[in-house]
UniProtKB/TrEMBL annotation:
Signal sequence extent: 1-27
Record SUPFAM superfamilies: Porins (SSF56935)
UniProt name for this protein: Alginate export domain-containing protein
Family annotation (Gene3D superfamilies): 2.40.160.100
Species for this entry: Desulfococcus multivorans DSM 2059
Length: 495
């Protein structure tokens, strides 16, 4: 090809490029707009990055298979970085509204960040393709005297006080409404489990069964605003047919009261569980459920910079694993981690800690008999349906203070824990078990650099009591009496 020919071709290409660039096809950019023009939509998002340093979370300086905690991002040990990323939309139209939040919550590492691991790989511990999805959703339509709602946003019966009975983001369909200016109500059908047994095993394993792995909850919550106080009775019926774990029919009756009277903020809750259950092995052995729980706290705002508080939490425990009574209080899902007084996201007690037998969010010890491998009585609830009917219960006495100095805020608290009864654990282990579980100290400092970014530091220390040594020392060559330490740096963006 001659040099003259190449020049002609180059000239033609430049000419065509200029023509295309000036044509209507490229002259105007496209636009994106709402298909429905009669709604208002807001776009929002957040990022929590929590570098976390952990030491002796099994209360043992030697290596054990319990030296980890579990949070929403998965297992954490030694040093881990939790990363919770969210984007979402809030929409409002005439008589209806919606909320959609997409979330990825994972341990920060290359496999998760690159989203490159397949779902069979042992390093697939968080954010791969299947893990970023709709975390919370709520749609409502208001008919006037009542509204209909559905989704899987966080719903709670008692999150304003002790969070003893239920708070979680299970799917629901329900109704809500108001009567006058002071009375509101909400009724929900909650689907905790809805599975078909043998569906994933093939017909050769056995017939399909749509009943054995079901767990539904029906709830009703009433709230009356009585001057500065809110009085809120509630009821829940837990139809728990998750046969491998329990076969329980449980009624929860309770009430919470909260408000601010001058400088004093009281929070009170009482809950009672009653019902019956059959054993998971279908032998026909039945158990009667009867258990009590209570919570009370008081905050006093002496000054915005200094708000001291004190509180007590009680959950009944079972004292005899060999009788046909279950006296251990098992919640549907305890939500203590996000309650207003002693709640703290990065406290130690609100994680799954195998040595303590705590559930995520709960702060009780209802998983302990199973974690120790000695449970023999079926439970009737708890996160993932893993609470034990042999749970020892708890008594928590705590005090603390919180406040703000301009953009700097703090919260410091001490909580002492005991078993309500250690008799059941003694029977199961065949030796004496002390009731002193231990003491936790939490200190949270946070500085708000602006409306969209804050930096915090949360130190959590748990000093185990004699009960931990009595329960676990026979399993290890060394004593389980080391102080657990956890330091979490909180980097938070919101927009």
């Amino acid at each position: 090809m001659s040099q003259m020919t190449r020049r002609w071709k180059m000239g033609i290409m430049v000419f065509l490029g200029l023509c295309l660039a000036s044509s209507p096809l490229w002259a105007e950019m496209g636009t994106m707009s709402l298909k429905s023009g009669d709604i208002d939509v807001q776009f929002m998002g957040s990022l929590k990055t929590f570098p976390t340093f952990l030491s002796d979370v099994d209360f043992n300086s030697d290596d054990t298979n319990r030296d980890y905690i579990l949070d929403e991002n998965g297992a954490m040990s030694d040093f881990s970085i939790r990363n919770e990323a969210r984007i979402g939309w809030l929409g409002k139209g005439e008589n209806w509204d919606f909320m959609i939040i997409l979330e990825a919550d994972f341990n920060l590492n290359k496999d998760n960040g690159d989203r490159g691991a397949d779902n069979t790989s042992p390093v697939d511990s968080g954010m791969t393709g299947e893990d970023f999805g709709i975390e919370k959703l709520n749609f409502t339509y208001n008919f006037g005297p009542f509204g209909i709602l559905t989704g899987w946003n966080t719903k709670a019966l008692d999150i304003q006080t002790g969070g003893l009975v239920y708070g979680d983001d299970h799917p629901y369909v329900g109704f809500s409404g108001t009567v006058g200016e002071n009375f509101s109500w909400e009724a929900l059908y909650l689907s905790i489990f809805d599975k078909i047994e043998n569906m994933d095993k093939g017909a050769a394993i056995g017939p399909l069964d749509a009943d054995d792995l079901d767990w539904q909850v029906y709830s009703l919550k009433l709230t009356y605003q009585w001057g500065p106080m809110a009085i809120s009775p509630f009821y829940a019926y837990s139809d728990n047919s998750d046969e491998p774990a329990a076969n329980a029919k449980t009624h929860y009756f309770g009430a919470e009261a909260y408000g601010k009277i001058g400088i004093v903020t009281p929070r009170l809750e009482l809950a009672y569980a009653v019902g019956d259950t059959d054993t998971y092995d279908r032998t026909g052995q039945s158990y009667d459920i009867s258990a009590l729980a209570a919570y009370g706290s008081v905050e006093v705002e002496l000054d915005p910079r200094f708000v001291p508080y004190i509180g007590l939490k009680y959950e009944e425990g079972d004292d005899d694993p060999n009788d046909d009574d279950i006296e251990a209080f098992n919640s549907i899902t305890d939500i203590s981690r996000y309650t207003p007084t002693f709640g703290m996201e990065n406290a130690f007690i609100y994680r799954l800690v195998p040595t303590l037998g705590t559930h995520l969010y709960s702060g009780n010890f209802n998983f302990l008999p199973k974690a120790r491998g000695i449970a023999q009585t079926p439970g009737y609830g708890g996160i993932s349906n893993s609470s034990s009917g042999d749970a020892p219960g708890l008594i928590m006495l705590g005090l603390g203070a919180k406040g703000k100095f301009g953009d700097l805020s703090y919260q410091a608290q001490i909580m002492q824990f005991w078993f309500d009864t250690s008799d059941g654990m003694e029977e199961l282990l065949g030796r004496d078990v002390d009731s002193d579980v231990g003491m936790e100290f939490d200190l949270l400092l946070r500085y708000q650099f602006g409306p969209h970014f804050s930096v915090g530091n949360n130190i959590a220390v748990f000093n185990p009591g004699d009960a931990i040594e009595d329960i676990w020392d026979s399993e290890t060559a060394s004593s389980n009496d080391e102080i657990a330490f956890m330091d979490t740096i909180e980097l938070t963006w919101t927009w």
